Amino acid sequence: MRDRSRVDFGRAVSTVRVTDRLSARIGLRVVAVVAVLLGLTGVVAVIALGTGDYTISPPDVLRAIFGEGSRTDELVVGKWRMPRVLLALMFGAALGASGAIFQSLTRNPLGSPDIIGFNFGAYTGALFVMLIVGGGYYQTAAGALLGGLATAAVVYVLAFKNGVQGFRLIIVGIAISAMLQSMNVWLIIKADLTAAMAAAVWGQGSLAGLGWDQVLPVTIVLAVLLPCAVLLAYRIPVLDLGDDAARALGIRVEPTRLALVLVGVALTALATAAAGPIVFVSLAAPQLARRLTRTASVAVLPAAAMGALLLVTADWIAQRAFAPNQLPVGVVTVSIGGLYFVWLLAREVRR
């Protein structure tokens, strides 16, 4: 059952009722923005699938996707290029959703995983496995997840004082991030030269070398984490009322906040484990999406859609800007995100 009405200070919303006790209000502008972002993402993805040393027109790319193209086109699109594009979309969505969670929790546009240091914690865990313990993709993924969770635990404990306040969490996270970056440099310096060079390149954030072996596990994990993030995010506006008010409305404040932190860290670790630390996507995507949706707070789904668009575009630029040489996608996101970061800092100072 769906009811439409003009509420929320004149914004059009759609109320979707699943049962008598379960319903959700969805802003129609949010739906429209997400649809437009997904459409733009699809266009960029088709362009990325068709460009390279072997160029394929967009209609031929679509035919190859649906199994109606030539054998060569299907080989190039389906086997060689499709995994990288799919991973860029999924990692971008994961980073955008993670950034939305932490910016909502901290109530600060600077409160993203790459500023607080959670992605550097995941990077430290992955480096420890790669350079000291040794292991393949799944061992590295486990190390990244444990590193991110351990960093989150340390930051959470140090920032806790009668609850966790956003500004305190950011300050503690920046300090821990600086320490982790020093540790990462030390691990690389002490490692074997070949392994250190591979880890240093991977540490710039790169989708090169990833294939179908990574697509399935990433899809499964994201299919679990993203719905959890969306469901938990509905409690964030209640948390914004203050801890006492949230408790009065039946919200278990600290368990809810802790669950959000765990899901946000897991989303960041998912991308870091496979592609290395890709920075600034989780910082920029939620705020750009918020400005398009004009919502009072950061929403997870628009941020995820924006993150997917940003990362697939950045990866296409990384592949084609200096072709035939390719850049790590992290270099592109840093270059673009650095300008955004300067603008954001200047804006916050003026405020």
Q: Helix/strand/pairing class, anyone?
A: mainly alpha
Please tell me what the overall shape is: globular
Biggest sheet architecture? 3 strands, antiparallel
What topology, given as strand order, has the largest sheet? 1-2-3
* Separate helix tally: 15
The beta-strand count equals: 3
C-alpha termini separation: 43 Å
Mean pLDDT: 84
What percentage of residues falls in helices of 4 or more residues? over 70%
Could you explain how this protein is built, in words?
With 351 residues, this protein is mainly alpha-helical. The protein has helices spanning 28-50, 58-65, 71-106, 113-116, 118-133, 137-159, 166-190, 193-202, 212-233, 236-239, 243-248, 253-275, 281-293, 300-320, 329-350, and strands spanning 2-7, 11-17, 23-27. 73% of the residues lie in helices and 5% in strands. A 3-stranded antiparallel beta sheet has the order 1-2-3. Strand 1 (2-7) and strand 2 form a beta hairpin. Mean pLDDT is 84; it is low at 1-9.
Write the layout of secondary structure elements.
Layout lengths: L1 E6 L3 E7 L5 E5 H23 L7 H8 L5 H36 L6 H4 L1 H16 L3 H23 L6 H25 L2 H10 L9 H22 L2 H4 L3 H6 L4 H23 L5 H13 L6 H21 L8 H22 L1
Antiparallel strand pairs: 1-2, 2-3
Helix pairs in contact: 1-2, 1-3, 1-14, 2-3, 3-9, 3-12, 3-13, 3-14, 5-6, 5-7, 5-12, 6-7, 6-12, 7-8, 9-12, 13-14, 14-15
Provide the descriptors you would attach to this structure in a database record:
15 helices, single chain, mainly alpha, about 5% strand, 3-stranded antiparallel β-sheet, about 350 residues
